[in-house]
Amino acid sequence: MAPAAATAAKWSGKPPALPSLLLIRRVDASFAAGLRQRFRVLDFFASGEPLPAFLAAAEAPRAAVVTGGVFLAWHFQLGGKRIGIIGLGNIGSLIAKRLEAFGCVIYYNSRKPKDSVSYRYFPSVHDLAVESDVLVVACALNKDTRHIVNMDVLDALGKDGIIINIGRGANIDEAEMVRALKEGRIAGAGPDVFENEPEVPAELLSMDNVVLTHHVAVSTSESRGDLRDHTIANLEAFFSGKPLLTPVLP
User: Fold this and answer.
1) Which of 45-54, 124-133, 241-250 has the lowest average pLDDT?
2) What digits encode the pLDDT tens for the residues 223-234?
3) Is position 131 annotated as part of the catalytic site?
4) Is there a catalytic annotation at residue 40?
5) Exactly one of 168, 174, 176, 195 is catalytic; which is it?
6) Does 224 participate in catalysis according to the annotation?
7) Of 44, 67, 90, which residue constitutes the final position of a domain?
8) Is residue 89 a contact partner of residue 97, using CB atoms and an 8 Å limit?
9) Domain span including residue 47
10) Which one of 100, 197, 199, 203 is the catalytic residue?
11) Residue 74 covered by a domain
12) Which residues make beta-bridge pairs with 190?
């Protein structure tokens, strides 16, 4: 009997229904485990068999799952994340306000607790990092805040944590941050400022889990206009003998 006739006879005169074809970009370990819990899964690559032999033993599968194509990395869900802000001044407070709109939980470290906010205060940056998914550095640079984010703070942030710096580069021990990224001790980083600007560590340029900007977090036409108006208002107050809007305190 010819092969086609034999196949038809095997299926009682009716040709077998072709399996559905499912194209999935990527099957990671958790997804594969979920499939196996619900369905009987035959894995061609794990079988070690030639494709014809694998298909012959597949007993008329209901679906063929094909993985491949271009895979885009999973995006980071912001809502519900615990955000630790170092420096809840004007900029830090505005960051917190915007993150609240995304449903984030805001924690902060500052020189002292602020009665005007309900966010949880941490006197220790290390303890703040332990409780945070993302650490945002938004403080000024002085002798107390130089390397305020060091090896211990990065390790406290942990392998799933992300560090963002829009303050000053030396607020973070940059060499230690690079090591933590390379060793997988933190998940990612988003520095806008660098410790030895304009120099940027070469290792950061090749990392997929790092987003770099060149000290432009404030560079919008609106913010430049606000800065100009604020500076003029400070000058007018000074020459009029009035209190400055934003005095520089010793």
Assistant:
1) 45-54
2) 888 888 989 999
3) no
4) no
5) 168
6) no
7) 67
8) no
9) 19-67
10) 197
11) no
12) 164
Domains held by the chain: number: 3
In a domain, 13, yes or no: no
Give the integer Cα–Cα distance in Å for 248 and 112: 18
Would residue 211 count as lying in a domain?
A: no
Please tell me whether residues 136 and 194 are part of one structural domain. yes
Helix H, strand E, coil C: the string for the chain is CCHHHHHHHHCCCCCCCCCEEEEECCCCHHHHHHHHHHCCCCCHHHHCCCHHHHHHCCCCCCEEEEECCCCCCCCCCCCCCEEEEECCCHHHHHHHHHHHHCCCEEEEECCCCCCCCCCEECCCHHHHHHCCCEEEECCCCCCCCCCCECHHHHHHHCCCCEEEECCCHHHECHHHHHHHHHCCCCCEEEECCCCCCCCCCHHHHCCCCECCCCCCCCCCHHHHHHHHHHHHHHHHHHHCCCCCCCCCCC
Residues 169, 163, 106, 215, Cα dihedral to 10°: 40
Report the range of poorest mean pLDDT among 41-50, 60-69, 102-111.
Answer: 60-69
